[in-house]
Amino acid sequence: MGRTKRLLYDGAVYHIISRGHNRCRIFNILDDYKAYKEIIKTYKERFNFELFHYCLMPNHIHLLLKVLKGSELPHLMQGINQAYAKHYKRSYGLIGNLFQGRYKSLHIDKDEYLLECARYIERNPLRANMVKDLSEYYFSSYNFYGKGKKDDIITTSPSYSELSDKKEQRMRLYIEYVLQPRPYEEMIDRKFKLQYNSVGCP
To answer: What is the Rg, in whole angstroms, of the alpha carbon atoms belonging to the chain?
Structure first.
């Protein structure tokens, strides 16, 4: 049976999920997370896209991005993940696949869903019981929006900017919003059958 053809649109926003093969870890140490972010930075120079939100979990990745040309999305994600896989194989001597097949994508077709998706993405470490305070997790966009920390791979989400004209109030409203669980979480978990427990790669 052939793969389902992706529906790709110019100027569209997509929630991207990439998972480790057999739920294996894809990030082991701090340098791995840094390497993935550096690769994203490199690809922002090659492709016209904006990264609004992200979360790098030990065994899977979430990106919320907007692409100018929809047809470039597969090349963009293939390039990023292949470049990171090379880093991982050089670092750990892995033979075989690092990622479980091609990435998954969900087209976010309404502006009001941007913050819903952002909340889901950034709440991942909390829901996985990795931290009790999201500001303690350094591999997501949460601290950029909730704490005003610099993160040069992020383009500020227009939905975030609309929360308030005042920076401090905008951050406070965002934190309050993210900390509320919502039905979107269960829907996405079911759709992509996400697992938070990881095993060691062979």
So the answer is: 16
